[in-house]
Amino acid sequence: MYNAEILRDEIIEDIRDWFSKNGPKATAVIGISGGKDSTVAAALLVRALGSDRVLGVLMPNGEQPDISDSFRVAEALNIRYLNVNIESGYTALRNELKIAGMETRPDADVNLQPRLRMSVLYMVAQSLPNGGRVINTCNRSEDYVGYSTKYGDSAGDVSILGNLYVSEILAIGDTMPEIPSDLVHKAPSDGLWGDTDEMRFGFTYDELEQYIETGSSGDADKDAKIKRMHDTSRHKYTEMHYCSPLS
């Protein structure tokens, strides 16, 4: 059984070490959604680097009903933040594709949003006086079943939570009183489809974690679905293939 406080402090030290080697004066640039991952990740960054070296970026697409949660995170951690609405860029790109004769699929439209958001984060990072490093906030549970967008939220310069299950993130969040507990335990949602993660999965994070650890969630149908999601999403997490030149 792990100790959440020890795990938290190990991650904080690793963040400090990584930045000392890859940006001693750089700012950590992180998208703030108001959900558990970005909330806990931002808190870890503040503890590791100080609030003056963390910049939050809020990126609604038009009206975001829970945008107030994002503001609460930034205010609770006393970090600088930008509010960049991606709606005009999102709409413009979709319209240009239609003009070009391309009818896009709904899932492609949805995935355009995190890809635009990642472009914003890198543009912000490159524009900072001492440079910025973009923080990836995906976790081990979601990554296992490919629940991220390739070159969208799966991108970044350093992954803070990528080795952690959702249960571990919640436990770490509970050790940090500076962040609102209700945001740590907010029902996980990608903010794209309107459903919670677990509704879209058809299984819970606890069942997923049990499958990863033991090989079975306890339900054969859910096991089959988890395996299928895992197998079909591996292309998201493997290095790009470089074709060998003909000899």
Q: What's the Cα radius of gyration?
A: 19 Å
Mean pLDDT across residues: 94
Count of DSSP H/I helices: 11
Rounded to the nearest angstrom, the distance between the terminal CA atoms is 54 Å
Shape-level CATH architecture: 3-Layer(aba) Sandwich
Strand content: 5-15%
Question: What profile does the largest beta sheet have?
Answer: 5 strands, parallel
As residue ranges, the low-confidence spans are none
CATH topology: Rossmann fold
Q: What spatial form do the alpha-carbon principal axes imply?
A: globular
Number of strands: 5
What is the H-and-E element order? HEHEHEHHEHEHHHHH
Give a summary of the structure in a few sentences.
This protein has 247 residues and is α/β, with parallel strands linked by helices. The chain has one domain (4-185): HUPs (Rossmann fold). The protein is built from eleven helices and five strands.
How would you describe this structure in keywords?
five-stranded parallel sheet, 11 helices, 5 strands, 9% strand
List the helices and strands and how they pair.
Layout: H1 4-22, E1 27-31, H2 36-49, E2 54-58, H3 67-77, E3 80-83, H4 87-99, H5 106-127, E4 132-136, H6 140-144, E5 158-159, H7 166-173, H8 181-184, H9 197-201, H10 205-214, H11 220-232
